[in-house]
Design a protein that fits this description.
Blueprint lengths: L4 H12 L1 E3 L4 E6 L5 E4 L6 E6 L3 E7 L12 H19 L8 E9 L2 E2 L2 H13 L5 E6 L11 E4 L9 E6 L2 E7 L6
Parallel strand pairs: 1-3, 6-8
Antiparallel strand pairs: 2-5, 3-9, 4-5, 4-6, 6-7, 9-10, 10-11
Helix pairs in contact: 2-3
Amino acid sequence: MEPQYFERTFRRGLTAGAAIVEMQEVGFVQFSQFIGIGTRDLGSCSVVVIVSHNAAILAHIAPRSNANPTDIHAGDINARQMMRRVQQVFHDNRDYFTTSAGHMLCAIFAGRIALPDQLEIIRQHLYQLGLQPSIDHYHVPSDGRQGRGTVMILGPRHARTPGYVEVYMEDYRVARYPCPPSPA
């Protein structure tokens, strides 16, 4: 994958209907209305993705909230609060997710998962939704190269492989989910 795929796609997409999810936000898109959804500037954040052939949910979860930076449990509390929001968005839009898949993207720092307790909290909340999430890792960005710290999901009409929903992390495809054929 050529560098800067995220930047090119979403710069083009902002006028064509791509959604950007900021840190500490949960976004939802219908692929009939948006080409995709993405986030950037991950640092050491976690990302939760729920996809179907109709829609996607993406959550950009900070390692800890700014609400109480001295609380040693702030990161776990934040992960639970964000996952409750993900669950609510999922339930509010359940008709779009009759067949869906969950995906978690987490940071690796110094050769280890950066936030293992938060990863387990995220996993448990996805299990509660009936999803068996797959996991991908990224190394905490240490350079300013474009495409670092990015995640994007492209709907089936805009994916590089037609008929699939594709998940990209740092400009590399990490997952693709087939869509059922359209009725004739």
